[in-house]
Amino acid sequence: MKSKIKLVEDMQFVGVADSGHAVAMDAPPSVGGRNTGSKPSELLLMAFGGCTGMDVISILRKKKQDVTNFEINVKGETPESHPRLFTNIHVEYIVAGKNISEDAVKRAIELSLDKYCMVGNTLNKASKITSSYKIIQED
After folding, report:
1. Which residues pair with 28 in a beta bridge?
2. Most distant CA pair in the chain: distance in Å?
3. Cα–Cα distance measured from residue 117 to residue 43, given in angstroms and rounded to the nearest whole number
4. Which of 25, 34, 61, 117 is 20 to 30 A from residue 55's alpha carbon, by CA?
């Protein structure tokens, strides 16, 4: 796996993955950017949410859970002294479906955060990661 990151202008960068998908990155105007793309720290939280989300939904599907909707909210706290460093990260999983097992949801989250999600494992070395979940049972 590799990525290529190119400076477009000023503080604007574009990252291109092996797949060819591009992501725009930029800094806020206060540090010379134009705020036309995501901040790298925002992309890190999105990568974490995507990584753990893919794990959790995959595990739930293997456990034959009838998930009809799935959402993840990730919030990172940064100290004023270093706004690019996350000290605390909280991830909330919202799972909707029919006859969703609370035990299956708990186990899927544990497996993702403790074992499978590489982004989460990396972030956990520098940050405290907490999680919560909400199950919406549908008829």
Report:
1. none
2. 53
3. 16
4. 25
Residue 8 vs residues 38, 56, 92: alpha-carbon distances, Å:
14, 36, 35
User: Could you give the CA distance from residue 103 to residue 88 in angstroms, rounded to a whole number?
Assistant: 25
Residue type, 128: K
Contacts of 98 by beta carbon, 8 Å cutoff, 6+ apart: 66, 68, 137, 138, 139
81 forms beta bridges with none
pTM above 0.85, yes or no: yes
Residue 99 zone, left/alpha/beta (φ > 0; ψ -120 to 50; rest): left
